[in-house]
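Tutorial handout. Part one gives the primary structure; part two gives the three-dimensional structure as tokens.
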Amino acid sequence: MSTFTIFLALIVVVAFLLIVVIMVQNPKGGGLSSSFGGGGTQQLGGVKKTTDFLDKSTWTLATLLLALILLSNVAINRGGENLDSKALDVDATTTQSLPTIPSDTANDAAEPIETPQE
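Part two.
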């Protein structure tokens, strides 16, 4: 298993967790944070602590996802190929000729298409 594959698996897991955490939140205060600790009870730390936890976990997962994406670029196997630009190489300049049409197909294309008359 390559390093890039490990990074890819971690990115998928973190992205899934980030989606779950975002979907649990409700901007109007009626989501999971209001069901825990509602009515004055202190279940799981209350509404304020649940909202703080969801907010902090969102930022943490988003930062982790960005870091994993940037680090996965380093882990890509480039196969040892030279990544220098060919446009700047003076010796690598080549000229391309335009494709030529064979003479027998050129005459066929020039003939009008006959349509049946009614």
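Part three, for discussion. The mean pLDDT is 75. Residues 33 and 47 are 5 Å apart (CA to CA).
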